[in-house]
Amino acid sequence: MILRTTALALLLLAPVMANAEPDLDCRIRLEFSSNDTGAVADYILTLQIKNTLGRAISGVSVNYFDTALNQLGNTALACPGVFGEGIPPSSHGECWAQLQKVDGNLLEKFGTEMWTAIVNTQLTQLESIRKCKVLGFAY
After folding, report:
1. How far apart are CA 4 and CA 86, in angstroms?
2. Distances from the Cα of 16 to the Cαs of 19, 20, 60, 111, in angstroms?
3. CA separation for the pair 76, 62 (Å, rounded)
4. Over residues 71-91, mean pLDDT
5. pTM for the model
């Protein structure tokens, strides 16, 4: 009887456990630009999704994880699509959000060497993001 109960419990929990794991690859992209304060480093979380829904997707809410599936955070990603109207049904597209910015104010305060060290340290930490789990969609 105990064996049957345990087997039944495992069968009932298996779908929940499978759905709890992140299922989409996502990455950090480092983009450099400049503004009034000088050099800017933007850390952009990107995710490719396929729209299997019946209307255009303009955004997604995600949890993001490292390779060991430790949750590192959550955010909302914009999905502008090719023409800025979201990702149409039956299409693929990129969703993204700026997770962090290191701008010229730090460059002024600490100098080029320290600014570069900050940019590289942040990149190393954020590059551990590997998986995303979509929590919901915006239309």
Report:
1. 49
2. 5, 6, 21, 50
3. 6
4. 93
5. 0.77
